Amino acid sequence: MSRPVEVAARGYAFVVSFSKTLALHENALPFCFREVWVITACLGLIKSTSTQYDGGVVAIDSEKEFYRLQGDLYSLCRAKFMRLAYLIGYGVEIEKSPVNSASLSMLSWPKPATWPSIPPDSSAEVMAKEKTILQAKAREKLFDIQRKPLPLEPSSLLREANRRRAFLSVGNLSELYDSVDGSGLGAHSKLSPNKSSSNLMTRTMSGPATSETSLPVDRPMRLSEIHVAAEHALKQTISDPDFMTSLSSPEEFESRYMELTKGAADNYHRSWWKRHGVVLDGEIAAIFFKHGNYDLAAKSYEKVCALYSAEGWEELLADVLPDLAECQKILKDEAGYLASCVKLLSLESSLFSSKERQAFQSEVVRLAHSEMRHPVPLDVSSLITFAGNPAPPLELCDGDPGTLSVAVWSGFPDDITLESLSLRLSAFSSADEGLKAIRSTDARVLVPGRNIITFDIPPQKPGSYVLGALTGQIGKLSFRSHGFSQDGPVDTDEFMSFEKPTRPVLKVRKPRALVDITPAVSSALLMNELQWIGLIVKPIDYSLKGGILHIDAGAELKIEESQMIEIESYRSDGEHSSPIDASKVLSRPTDTGRVEKVPIENGKIKLPDWASDVTTLVWFPVRAINDTVPKGTSPASPQKHSIVDGMRMIALKLEFGAFHNQIFERTIAVHFTNPFHVSTRVVDKCNDGTLLLQGNIAF
């Protein structure tokens, strides 16, 4: 009817259902009849439906469902095929991966009425199987990783097979279990009360049995004998020569195993269940790795690791990632190998021993200090994370530098030395605007866990800033981290987030007035006399600690540096609340508040620390110079005075702030007058032309 999708769906459901029916009658059926029927039924369905499916005009959902069903058929066939292979001794050829373990450890053993016996003249086959068992050993993994192998059987095949023959034994069941050790060789630890010890020893060492009735009364079967018996029994059950060929040797088994695995993976990739396909790619990669095809193995392992990492399946990732790292090391893929080592270090610490984690770190450090052919920046976001101070953000005024403390967590098992460490901040309002990288001084040694690192921040533009990225260098290797920690211990669920943090760590205020300097007296000063000029220095919510006041006298004005400068506290509600009387400047100031004398050198005055956050009055002596001789005036020719004549300019510059980065400049004008004024008038005129003048001198 040209409906292959429906045939595949109904066929798969029938295979699963009828397999359960066969299980109810398994003890009356030939050995492994259920497994063999499922395999042949799945292969028949795959062949018939795939040839009928032409991929024509069909709904996308139907197409995806068809390939999903094909993948399921391949997977079911693959699991049963591995079970048969394990029964006949090919278990050492099967990768002990999580997916294979999940399939086989939940798949029950065949349940025949009695387990098949060893056929006559099979000693050579038993010895060959015995040799395979003894020579089998797990592949040594990179970094000498020791992991408990995953099981491929629901229970011990040795005990299961012998248990199904126990009813023919002369002993009881407990004697049978005690007579079988873990190696698969018969070794009685208890003697049957019905047999003498000498007779039993003779039977135990007499070699394989030669008939079905002689073996149970002799001893339990060894594992090699169980494999040989199962293989001969399968030959009686399987009628398809091609099927039996696929079980005739490890090479033939591997070829069919690869075919089934690839068929399942390819169909899953074309369906909705792409993750199933990626997982099976890992099984294909294991075959590639076994045969030295490391390039293809690495490509498949990369897909598997990417899936496990994205899903957060760290235990599965810990099983596959070392294989990827080994492929990359063999292929001399230094960048990929480094990334894999970092990823191994970032996995949960309980998945590897301390020695193994230290081996990962040693490889990172070794490569970082070596001459890499193609050095690339290494992303360590999963291993080195950072967070701002939980306290309120650092607030700076415009133009101020500062020091920012950042908590950096290291996932390395040992101390690691960084040649450099820099932090980049991003503007809170826009991700495109940010500060240049600020560098931490000197080399840094990160200890495992929390580290507090300080960064010197140069003056920045006004705005709010959040953490951007952490960069640095290990040896010759540059690294980058954009993992923002939640300021908690490494083992918390919220240890790391790749989202841009929302809480600012730095706020730079907009420009504002930080200090104000006004003259206390600017007029009624005497020319050519020592005069005291007062400056009111008022900080505006900013510390003037360490501030230096520069006083630059203009032309015809001299600062008397031989005199000490006097600084006194200024109270707006005290005697200085009203304008200071001009007479105040004729002598040294006196005040009931705090007064301190400081020297002036080259026009510079260093403000005392106590004056850093209070309003002060700075008195300094000056002398206005005027060399012109005062001229008298008369009512007939009055002298015109200009305010500019007595004007003198003083340039002020205050450097303050933590690094004297803040500058306040102002120029003030002060007015000086002559200390006396001469005026004349004619009081009388004589006949001889003589004039009598009267002169008045006003001070």
UniProtKB/TrEMBL annotation:
It comes from the Eukaryota. Residues 201-214 have a biased composition (Polar residues). Signal peptide: none annotated. Residues 187-216 are annotated as: Disordered. Residues 189-200 have a biased composition (Low complexity). Coiled coil: none annotated. GO terms for biological process: early endosome to Golgi transport; intra-Golgi vesicle-mediated transport. GO terms for cellular component: cytosol; TRAPPII protein complex. This is Trafficking protein particle complex II-specific subunit 130 homolog. It comes from Aegilops tauschii subsp. strangulata.
